[in-house]
């Protein structure tokens, strides 16, 4: 007999008798029974779909490293938003590709910037669609870093005002949730007070609290044309070996007023999702990033794996690890698979 060994009669492994009286397979005997006892059930309500918006006109261009995902011009966005709404996907995460970039990423906080116009377009098409915006400078800076530079380093404190301006401009345009992904220290508190003082106390902040310096962002950087022109992001994004540091980042962001927390990437960091789930009561998001998507797509295209099965299994794993919401490029496919 297996017990906890501590004389506790409520111990989880006290199964008097054991096999053959005890047979776990009984609970797996039929599909309806398996449906009944399933602990983690993925639904379309758990998913958010990222969208890349460009300044072009009448454009829907497939992203070569992310087949099935596109660059959209603002004027073509409404149809896509209506399609997502029809599929039951509750929210989108917007990324902008501006025509011109500069040292200070001014396109990120321009009132008529590409994302600001895209937000209005999405809300006009489907007012109920949740519009979440990525708040970062890297798609807008000529050097591709997530903040302003001092010499070769990204200068934390002067970047905070630009991020706050970006968040406020998104809120003015109608965004529901702003999601800072830059990994500057103090940005959540800075953005919160800017939103509040500009009349947006109800706009939520989803903090990319534990964002790692990851090779899994490769296809995204092609998609968003945001690779750093020199160096890398290791002085602001987290080291892949760390989990205690993730817990500290989360605690600080909660203290600064974050409404929701994100871990990114997802698949190689499920222990981080679990560790944060156990310590933090806020809604927890996992970002199933571009490289994770590209690997499944590439292997499926060669017939090496079953795309539907592996995608659903991966995303279910993210939810089982403790994520409430999964941002995923597979969202439309998953919505179709689950809706069948
Ligand atoms: C912007 C940002 C990145 C991603 C989301 N926001 C790229 C980066 O930090 O280099 C990556 C998303 C993905 O790979 O799907 N800072």
Describe the structure.
The chain is α/β, with parallel strands linked by helices and 340 residues long. 37% of the residues lie in helices and 17% in strands. The protein has helices spanning 31-37, 77-87, 114-125, 156-173, 187-197, 218-224, 244-256, 270-279, 290-301, 307-321, 331-339, and strands spanning 47-54, 60-62, 70-73, 91-97, 130-135, 149-150, 153-154, 177-180, 204-211, 260-264, 284-288, 325-328. An eight-stranded parallel barrel has the order 1-4-5-8-9-10-11-12, surrounded by eight helices. Strand 10, helix 8 and strand 11 form a beta-alpha-beta unit. Helix 3 (114-125) packs parallel to helix 4 and helix 4 (156-173) crosses helix 5. The protein is globular, with a radius of gyration of 22 Å. Mean pLDDT is 95; it is low at 1-5. Bound molecules: ligand PBG. Ligand PBG is lined by residues 134, 136, 138, 146, 181, 217, 220-221, 226, 233, 289-290.
């Amino acid at each position: 007999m297996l017990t906890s060994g501590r004389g506790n009669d409520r111990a989880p492994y006290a199964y008097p008798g054991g096999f053959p009286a005890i047979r776990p397979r009984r609970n797996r005997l039929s599909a309806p029974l398996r449906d009944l006892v399933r602990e983690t059930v993925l639904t379309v309500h758990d998913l958010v779909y990222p969208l890349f918006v460009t300044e072009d006109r009448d454009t829907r261009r497939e992203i070569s490293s992310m087949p099935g995902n596109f660059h959209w011009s603002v004027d073509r966005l409404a149809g896509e938003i209506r399609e997502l709404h029809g599929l039951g996907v509750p929210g989108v995460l917007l990324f902008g590709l501006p025509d011109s970039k500069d040292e200070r990423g001014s396109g990120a906080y321009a009132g008529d910037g590409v994302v600001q116009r895209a937000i209005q377009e999405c809300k006009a098409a489907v007012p109920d669609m949740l519009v979440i915006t990525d708040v970062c400078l890297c798609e807008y800076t000529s050097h591709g870093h997530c903040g302003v530079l001092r010499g070769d380093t990204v200068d934390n404190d002067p970047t905070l005002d630009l991020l706050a301006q970006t968040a406020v401009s998104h809120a003015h345009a109608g965004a529901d949730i702003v999601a800072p992904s830059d990994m500057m220290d103090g940005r959540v508190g800075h953005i919160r007070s800017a939103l509040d003082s500009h009349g947006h106390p109800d706009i939520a902040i989803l903090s990319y609290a534990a964002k790692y310096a990851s090779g899994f962002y490769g296809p995204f950087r092609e998609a968003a044309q945001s690779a750093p022109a020199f160096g890398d992001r290791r002085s602001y994004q987290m080291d892949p070996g760390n989990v205690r540091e993730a817990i500290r980042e989360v605690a600080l962001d909660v203290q600064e007023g974050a409404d929701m927390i994100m871990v990114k990437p997802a698949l190689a960091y499920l222990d981080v999702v679990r560790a944060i789930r156990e310590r933090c009561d806020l809604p927890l998001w996992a970002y199933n990033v571009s490289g994770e998507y590209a690997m499944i797509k590439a292997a499926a295209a060669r017939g090496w794996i079953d795309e539907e099965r592996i995608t659903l299994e991966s995303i279910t794993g993210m939810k089982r690890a403790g994520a409430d919401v999964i941002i995923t490029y597979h969202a439309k496919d998953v919505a179709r698979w689950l809706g069948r």
